[in-house]
């Protein structure tokens, strides 16, 4: 599960007037603060700033964790105020986000072991995370609601920061002055660093398949652009030809060229049966009766491999045995082995076995 945080917050300094001593005040630093000095304290931090006093930078797409610590048993409510004035309610939530925190302990979201992340979204700019701690549970119905039974996060109704602060002030207004407190953490959001890419040209003397870093890239004699710079293993394959394997280095803003002449697989030779007459056998050899033909076992192996590649399998390798060839291909959790064996009376046996690994 991913939840996006979005950016900038511009606060309007103003005070809310009321009869209760604990009525919150809007603050340019903390959104809402208790005007008294309660002995209840809460501290909120983000994972890049353990002190809670700095203003760390996150790039869009980075993961963030938010932590809150209290000095007394309290209910902690976490909010992120966005650049457009909207607010995300981080805690409580339906992902196991219990918001009761014991004195002297820290509540972290996401907690270690959670099967989801909290990812930074956009736009760029200054962000604030508000922690509001209360000795008693708060009724947030005026602030946020789970719109459907499937919602994992509540939707905050206030569409501006001033409206959000006003709503919070109404919530805490009836509380005793020593029963709630707030704290704010700051972080800045910037754009993702631009990724400079390179290109790779693979040239071959025959039509071939190019596998880059274990993934099928496509055919040969093609320039592939938008590749991340780095050094990768590359394998080039064509039916009836020996595989070629090497490494290539893709450089930023440049085209890397790799030109390969694939060599045919080792042929076998068949000899015209002897006539019993050495002179006739010699004449037959001179006339070309001794001929060179392709290895039928390799041809059968390559044909079966090509069929499987068209089904989305990736060839991992082919090896020659004393009786034929063995090729291994993979797709997802499945591994297919193609075994071609030469039999008696000029026969070939082609066996395909598949092994699939399941996680339970």
TrEMBL record:
List keywords of the entry alphabetically.
Answer: Signal
Which N-terminal residues, if any, form the signal peptide? 1-22
Could you name the domain of life of the organism this protein comes from? Answer: Bacteria
Query: What is the recorded name of this protein?
Result: S-layer protein
Instruction: Please tell me the species this chain comes from.
Output: Deinococcus enclensis
Q: Report domain PEGA positions.
A: 198-266
* UniProt xrefs under InterPro entries: Carb-bd-like_fold, DUF4384, PEGA
The DUF4384 domain sits at 57-137
